[in-house]
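Hi everyone,

Forwarding the result from last night's run.
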Amino acid sequence: MASSRKLHPDELDIDESLVHRMVAEHFPQWAGLPVEPVTPTGTSNAMYRLGAELVVRIPRIPGVVEEIAKEDRWLRRLAPRLPVPVPVPLAVGGPVDGCPWPWSVLRWLDGATPVTGRIAEPGLLARDLAGFVTAIRRIDPVGGPAAYRNESLAERDAETRKAIAAVPDLVDAAAATAAWEHALDAPAPTGPPVWLHGDLQPGNLLVGPDGRLAAVIDFGCAGLGEPAVDLIPAWYVLPAAARETFRAAAAPDDAAWDRARGWALSIALMEVSYYRDSDPRMTSIARHVIAEVLADHA
């Protein structure tokens, strides 16, 4: 039996027995280790603990298969230059019966995903997040791949308005449209593309018992893009009281901050539209983000 509900129509059936078989066929040295699904589940990749120190990461859908090779190549370059641990792949496995795609084995990183509204040390976490964002965008971009979110806000306009129209029962459409148009009016970035994580949402962050940022995971969206994309944790993770701490430490100009608010709104709107019937957790987080953005804009 698959260990998690389907979030996508083209999703693989993945369960513990398949993971056991994948590991045994490709990495017999780990074949005797116990396998356990990681919860909450990822939306694009399935994660399974492999013993106490390892984790298996398997693409759930065709659209993210290329991320395995990208992470295997680039995380080795990024990891030494980042202020917190990141999941550098230890090994990459090949197709097996039941999984036609590559998949990876990574070192398990300890920590808990932050829960919006229950951040123990919001000021410290805000500074840690800003430190990560600042560090990754300083890495030499030469040869880097394009980030998943490498387009302009204007290029997201049609899909964002479509998402607003799709959820009028969940979102104040007029307020969302006004906030979105404000972001569209912000001046475009003038500098060259920089390295981004590209998806700094709660599920991709790990926080330690002290409330500090302990690790950043899931670099499938990473690559070169505009710096405002990595400012979305201001609304996705942090409470309003810590937002200015993050902004001061990350030091964006006013235009980048306005674009960042637009990025957070656009991403959250598309998540609500896509996951409203399949993933209550993602929908709840996205609705919270939209409420934070609208209150901030107001």
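Residues 153 and 184 are 6 Å apart (CA to CA).

Cheers,
N.
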